[in-house]
Design brief:
The structure holds 2 protein chains of 2 kinds.
Chain A lengths: L12 E6 L6 H14 L3 E6 L6 H5 L8 E5 L3 E6 L2 H19 L5 H13 L3 H17 L8 E5 L3 H37 L7 H25 L5 E8 L2 H16 L4 E9 L4 H21 L5 E5 L8 H9 L4
Helix pairs in contact in A: 1-10, 3-4, 3-5, 5-7, 6-7, 6-8, 8-9
Chain B lengths: L2 H37 L10 H4 L3 H4 L3 H7 L14
Classes of the chains: A alpha/beta, B mainly alpha.
């Protein structure tokens, strides 16, 4: 699938690049995007890492809205997700609804309540997920203006939690919807027993909000677990800790039902000079461990490259080594 | 109200009344549970879904007063919700 542009049914393809901090996820993501654009595809490149680096790699300031960073046969539009902006937008919308529905004297307390939600643990993460879902589900729709979506993810732990969220939140909304079902059934029974109408508007509103939520989480989850449309590339270096983390990440992604397409071993030392030759021998041992622990996933080795991986020329040099 | 109508409504109340109370209580229990979910963060229990539950707040806010009275709190348990 991936890297052949749109899938069999013409769906855009989603590639998520993950791995331990500092192994070169951003460079790899940018290089893949560049390669795809040069092959004529329209690429959306998204960073979810709170410490954004996409802008540095392309030498252009980026933000929460897609911005064209490369024109070629195709093109690359890049986004650095800004969770604070999403939280602000979300809570402002909730606040407006509250003010519309509540009497004047309740406006200040309602605002204070929303400020609590702003600072709640998990809010930042939820906002990243919200924006990612919005961007990715939109761009992966068959009618979208993109052929390939590449996501440069945050380091492992953060990404795993993010990937587990859509499924968990689907259950969360399902549970609340079941609660609404029961409440509404009792309400209907009450009306049947001659009690007056009450809460009918409120019930409809709660149900509408919950259903909209559930649909969005479900769409993202379906996309993530669909091997015909999505997959992960795990980037690592041939060192002990990154290799161990890659194994763990692979296991956990599998448990979530999210397909892993490829392992990329970045910055392999050349057999050149005493120090690097010795390094290379040590790297071989770590590679052997990785191959055994993650069987059946193609592994690509990327050599250590001279120079910084910023700008189009350097990214193109890296792209050469990424394989098909 | 005619005599028959009065008897009729009296009978209806006799039969349906207790069920109505049961139904109302069952519905309230569900609604109270829902209220708890929406207000977790404000009640001091960290709510990992606060971002999402805030969205449900507008539709439940008006019933907050009835809720805290019902669950046995005379005054609003939340400093910033000054309903009473």
């Amino acid at each position: 699938m991936l890297l052949s542009g749109r899938g069999d049914r013409g769906d855009p393809q989603l590639l998520l690049v993950s791995g331990k901090g500092g192994v070169g996820k951003t460079s790899v993501s940018c290089a893949v995007a560049l390669k795809q654009a040069r092959a004529g595809r329209r690429v959306l490149l998204v960073s979810t890492d709170p410490a954004h680096n996409l802008g540095h790699a392309w030498g252009a300031p980026l933000g929460d809205e897609p911005r064209r960073v490369l024109h070629d046969a195709g093109h690359v539009d890049a986004v650095e997700i800004d969770p604070a902006l999403t939280v602000q937008r979300h809570l402002r919308a909730v606040g407006e609804t509250l003010r519309r529905m509540l009497p004047e004297r309740m406006h200040a307390p309602a605002q204070q309540h929303l400020d609590l939600a702003r600072e709640a643990p998990g809010t930042h993460e939820s906002a990243v997920l919200e924006r990612l879902a919005e961007l990715v589900v939109g761009a992966c729709h068959p009618s979208s203006a993109y052929d390939v979506v590449v996501v440069d993810t945050a380091p492992t732990g953060h990404t795993l939690r993010l990937m587990a969220l859509p499924e968990r939140l689907t259950s969360w909304t399902e549970a609340l919807l079941a609660n609404r079902d029961r409440s509404e059934r009792f309400g209907a029974a009450l009306r049947g027993l001659g009690a007056g109408e009450e809460h009918v508007d409120r019930d409809a509103e709660l149900r509408r909000v919950l259903l909209r939520r559930r649909d969005r989480f479900a769409a993202l989850h379906e996309l993530l677990v669909d091997p015909a449309r999505a997959g992960f590339w795990l980037v690592t270096t041939a060192e002990r800790l990154p290799v161990a983390e890659t194994q763990a990440l692979h296991t956990q992604l599998r448990a979530l039902g999210i397909p892993v397409r490829r392992l990329l071993v970045n910055r392999r030392s050349p057999a050149d000079g005493a120090v690097l030759t010795a390094r290379r021998a040590v790297e071989e041992q770590h590679l052997a461990v990785l191959r055994e622990a993650v069987p059946g996933v193609p592994l690509t080795e990327v050599p250590l490259l001279p120079g910084d991986l910023t700008g189009e020329t350097a990214l193109a040099a890296l792209a050469e080594h990424l394989g098909g | 109200m005619g005599r028959w109508a009065a008897v009729r409504s009296g009978l209806e109340e006799f039969y349906a009344g207790p069920y109505r109370t049961t139904m109302r209580r069952a519905r309230r229990d569900e609604d109270d549970l829902f209220m708890l979910v929406v207000l977790t963060e404000a009640l001091g229990v960290p709510d990992p879904a606060a971002y999402w539950s805030a969205e449900l707040l507008p539709a439940t806010y008006e019933e907050f007063h009835a809720w805290h009275r019902r669950v046995g709190m005379e005054r609003s348990p939340l400093d910033h919700v000054g309903c009473c």
